[in-house]
Queue: 2 jobs
Job 1
Amino acid sequence: MDENIESLFKARMTIFEMLSDRGYTFEKYEMDNNIDQFYFVYKNLTNMFGLTIQAYKSNGNIILIFFPLEMKLRVNSIRSMLDKTKYVGAKHIIIVYPGVVTTFTKQHLNTYYNTALRVEQFCVKALQFNVTKHRLVPPHSVLSKEEQQKID
């Protein structure tokens, strides 16, 4: 089996853990339980949205997770993702790219900081395991107002 597909499968599993930890609910498919089924689906993909995950929070917020297939993430792909994001009404997206992000694409993504749309990006290699589950990493939690004031 292709090493890149195995890495993508592991990254997808880590994303599911991240979504659960962040309080999102989502639907898992057969391909998410079995790497052989994932391989079959991956090999038969017809567009970049075939692996997209849509998750929800109890307050109605929607997050989309995109897995573009191209090794170089380009602006045209970002625009397609943003079109889908607007159509769905999501305010938060995660892009999991397999290779590199072009300089022009990085500049384009930077224009979305400090806007209503939150954009996160991860390389597939960075998601091979969930670092927050490592035995040497303490549990992460949101600080209370009092804890925040103590730090300030």
Job 2
Amino acid sequence: MSYKGYSARVEYDDGDGIFTGRIAGIRDGVGFHADTVEGLREAFREAVEAGADAVYCGFQDATNARNFPGLNFTPEELAEAVAYAHARGTKVLLALNTYPQTATWSRWTAAVDKAADFGVDAIILADPGLMEYAKTKHPQLRLHLSVQGSATS
């Protein structure tokens, strides 16, 4: 989830029946929670208004490790979210932090291309091959290694 360039990590607490989030990349701890996805989005916007300077989010598909129903963005929504965040001085980082398979490689490269087209400030990647693709195809795009990142031989 992102707003005004801030990103947040969101989880669902099944026991309490609420979504919880924490804004990433800032020194102070800013958390938020809600019992609906729309409420979570509003709480996130409020957290950004409280001072977040960057947000992270993902697409609503398998390219994102937090691909839960009702969370994250369609490509159209992400384009709007990036414009909204940038208009308010907030950076947007897009998490593409899962591993493509040979048969699905084009979905992940298309996500990198969309991220660059939409003007995200950086992408968070797990797969070294996808990182190489992004570096070659979009050299202006900042790349961050995800905590899910791994390389084996």
